[in-house]
Amino acid sequence: MTDIASSPPIDAATAPGSGQRLRTTTQIYMYVALILVAIIVVVPLISTALGGFKTLSDLRGNPFGMPTEWQWSNYGDIIVSQRYWLQMGNSLVIAVLTVFLTLAFGAMAAFCFAHIRFFGSDYLLNYFLIGLMFPAATAILPLYIRIRDLGLVDTYWGVVLPQVAFGTGMSIMLFRNYFRNLPSELFDAAFVDGCGYMRFFWHITLPLSRPIIATVGIISFVGSWNSYILPLIMLNSESRYPWPLGIMIYRGEFNTEWQLVLAFITLTILPTIIVFFLAQKHIIAGLTAGAVKS
Amino acid sequence: MSMSDTTMPGRTFAAAKPRAAPQRRKRSLKHSKWPVLLLFLPPALMLFTVLVILPMGEAAWYSFYNWNGYGVPEQWVGWRNYQLIFRNGAFSQALINNGMIVVASILIQVPLALWLATMISSRIHGALFFRLIFFLPYVLADVAAGMIWRFVYDGDFGLVGGIAHLFGAEPPYWLADRDTAMYAILGVVIWKYFGFHMMLFIAGLQSIDKSVLEAADIDGATGFQKFRLVTLPLLGSTVRLSVFFAVVGSLQLFDMIMPLTGGGPSNSTQTMVTFLYNFGVTRMQVGFGSAVGVVLFVICVTLAFSYKRIFMRHD
């Protein structure tokens, strides 16, 4: 900044020079602002990860800095514990089943809405879209009773099926819009060649739909992986708990030992962070574009 | 409403095709259409009906009973559950809190997100890096974010306590104080969601025609004038969308509250969903909880419809 301020006045007086100067100083302000916001975002996360390496008394005196003595055992004990891997596994099974069914059911129904005229199709589509308007929590008690009567309480399916049901509206909406924008010549050509609906779906529509499959898949995976209220209500056995529920239980058990809770949080969000950095482009695009379009 | 709008092109598309197509193909289409309908529609339709629509209808039915969830609901109480809801101080607090989240979003989150989006969109170095960092909290689970901030706000072991310690002040316990707890939660909500809203604005900014801004340049508009008179009006639809997501998100807020305060202290941080959980689910008051669900449903649908009709008519 001082360099710019002390630059010869003759340069600053000319139009391009002053434009340049403005751009540089505003750029500095911009960077200061952006870095400040970035610090506010990142500091809680880094302190959580570092806090997991501290002793409780170290945490009390020094919540920000590096650990005075690195307590690797905080993390080590959790990594070798069965509960951590069990919870990760539970979350993964529930998320994979949810994603698969949301994609399959959504794409199949959307295909009908995109390509076939049938009696009441517009009404039926709007019927599915009602599901976009209210959260699963509104009907959670009758939903629980239904799942209980179906004998699915405390099973993965008791979480998966409601998640799929509440994801159907979003899935149908995104798939249908995408299918309709595929060139209709494909459809015409396939029918001239005697291709039926099923084969058209399998061999032409689906292979062309990778981007939207990725979008719907990412939305439903992130939603399921992070979900809390449905597992909280549908599951009783700790051996079936997914990790968000596991954090709460862990915190309840070790409520006087923040350093262990911090290590546990860090390890449970680590997979999300790694996957996010690896596939950031797709995840950001999927989550925002998907939200806008539905 | 955008939903019925979006079905319109489908109608014309599907209706136009057979007309343009030769007669022979129209017949073959007709022949093969039922098997695919009977195979492809029922899975989604059945699951959606049984687990989304029926429970909502049952909630309306149960809401007139006093029932613990076992056997058959028998004790008809009429509108009493609804009267109890609206007489309950915790529920009015929940309504206020849900409103506060929307207001904070409009006053703080939308301007912040827009400001960051304009900076990141202005071709600076490291734009991708900042985008990545700002979006990161959005992909974390609400429960994890809530737990992390419970640590941050902790007066004894957390960052806020540490900062107070640096200045030699008494550590504050924001989450334990009913006057500050809700504001502390608003901070976490903004921390977690501003990146998502920022991405909406970045997408909105990308869709603005560059020639309009160049024309403003030629007319000698300053950077701020360009923003106020050109960019901002063109981003109207994105602002309305952003506020819409804030409203919807506020009505669902639950996961984040549970690790932070659980709705306390003395119900000062209840939202409608935590109220439903704390007063309906944990006490297995199926009738009362269902009535809360019905109220929440009516609020959600009314807001979604009227917001879309009033503000997003042309988007």
TrEMBL record, chain A:
Its main location: membrane. It is a multi-pass membrane protein. This is ABC transporter permease subunit. Residues 88-279 form the ABC transmembrane type-1 domain. It comes from Endobacterium cereale. One of its GO terms (cellular component) is plasma membrane. Keywords: Cell membrane, Membrane, Transmembrane, Transmembrane helix, Transport. The chain crosses the membrane at residues 28-53, 92-116, 123-144, 156-175, 258-279. GO terms for biological process: transmembrane transport. Belongs to the binding-protein-dependent transport system permease family. The keyword Disulfide bond does not apply. It is found in: Cell membrane. The keyword Acetylation does not apply. InterPro entries: MetI-like (IPR000515), MetI-like_sf (IPR035906).
